[in-house]
Automatic annotation (TrEMBL):
Residues 198-220 have a biased composition (Low complexity). Residues 221-232 have a biased composition (Gly residues). This is Sel1 repeat family protein. It comes from Streptomyces tsukubensis. InterPro entries: Sel1-like, Sel1_AlgK, TPR-like_helical_dom_sf. Residues 197-240 are annotated as: Disordered. It comes from the Bacteria. SMART domains: SEL1. It holds the Pfam family Sel1.
Amino acid sequence: MDVMGDKATLWETGRFVQSDADDRDETGAADTEARQRCAAATGDIAATSALGALLLRQGELDEAETHLRAATGAGDRAAANNLGVLLHQRGYPEEAAGWWRVAAVAGSAAAAHSLGRHHRERGDEPAAEYWLRQSAEEGHVLGAYALADLLEHRGDVGAERWMRTAAERGHREAAYRLARVLERRAVDDLRAASALLTPRATPGRPTTARTGGSRNAGGESASGGKNGGTKGGAKPAAEEAEQWYRQAAARGHQRAALHLGAILEKRGELKEAGRWYLTSAKDGEPRAACALGFLLRDAGDEENAAVWWLKAAQAGDGNAANALGALHAEHGQNQTAERWYRSAMDAGDINGAYNLALLCAEQQRTAQAEQWYRRAAYAGHREAANALAILLLQGGDAAGAEPWFSKAAEAGSVDAAFNLGILYAGRNDDRGAQRWYGRAAAAGHTDAALQVGIAMLRDGDEQAAERHLRCAAGGGSAEAAFRLASMLDARRPPQGQPALGETPPEKDECEEWYERAAEQGHRRAQVRVGMLAAERGDVVGAARWYRAAADAGSRNGAFNLGLLLAREGSEPEAALWWRRAADAGHGRAALRLALLFARRGELAEGQQWCARAVALGPAEVAERAARLREALQQELTA
């Protein structure tokens, strides 16, 4: 009869976790009660104890107390435990503890657990640990979990052992918390490994705040002891964490389902991730509803995404409110977007203020944008601080902008570090500019890497310059690609036009970088690609790139296209391109036009272009144009 009493818990008070008590089917409960009453009437102590426990579960406390006191007086430890439960429910904790002590001394693990919890609630941790350890060592799952919780609170490394024991015996909260500890350990191990492999440098690139808010499903911190890495062929911490999340989620733990979904989503297993998010969201977890909304949005289902975001936002999730605001803003519903951004702020999400500022800025409501940027910046939003500084700088308040740029940069904003570089460069403080450009470049900022590369080139450090230019060019900077190509171009030996029948050489890295810049519309790169094509005898390719550069406003492109057309016998069309180049200030194009008109006998027109070439230069062109002008003047006066 000890079993019945040991499984009874304080299910109604919520202060103790309910155990796996009473696995009997409730059908036939009346017959069971009748049999126990008959047996108790004959003086059967075990039946009296069982009847008291049954009445206790049914809430009939007065009658239950009578039977439990009778059984307790006869020495039944289960009855003593259950009497403690009853008295605790009635508000007599000290008397309850006395009966729990009687039962615990007699060997009741459930009573030892209840007594340990009683002592912990009163701040007597040594006594609490003693009784909880008794309960745990007797195999009581709630005792193991409560002991683990106590040890974890104290930072004792033994906490994990008992948390694992409780988890292995089916305690879902223990499984969840064990998973959190293991997940944190996996992250710490990864950071430690990265620190060993990566040289120490400037701070890494941060994650920029999204208009719709971040979609991190976590948000809780793990606690507990840390035992280091895996040993003896044990599973990696991350893999074991997933296993325990899965076990807890399968038992209905909504936060475990949320974290399991996040792990699966990160791994690309979106379908299963969605199922766990849905399970958690249906159980009332707003973060899971929010994450499910993002998953649906990414799959193109905005309508259902909005449904889940709405549920999460109504439950107080600021991230979901931000997402709804962004969704409405994308559809031009600015008033609704603003309402949701304000809801995000009310939920404590500073992204709401930042996103509201962005919305105001797009509508040219500068004063309101500044107000919301300030609110987010004061709350620690680094991108809001950067945006506020830009707004102040645009308004002519450079002195007010600089502290906000500095605050954002020190908080990890890469854009703010780059903007500080621009600010220092504008003051001709090259040292300060390079310090901030260097920090932004180390964090992966393309334009900052370009600026550092240019500075290194200026200082004669080609090796460092090439490294930074490659980073910037790889990040999509056309100017960096052109400068890198120019550096590589200067190193290679000159290549003439291939002989008749000779196979044209393959494109080298230099030309590939020129082409990458040219394809992004870089005019000087387009001219250089055209020149390289002409050197290979590719007239069509050369003409295409020269024309692209000329159409984009390159006077060199127009001049070279004119040369190419003249060589191909299209002198009238060549003259059109030379005229365009000369009108844009190209001295050689003006000289070519002067020679062209001189050959045609249009001496006065030729003289005019000679004068233009003299004015435009450079020196050798001006000298040749002056001699030609004198010759034309003599011809006219002869």
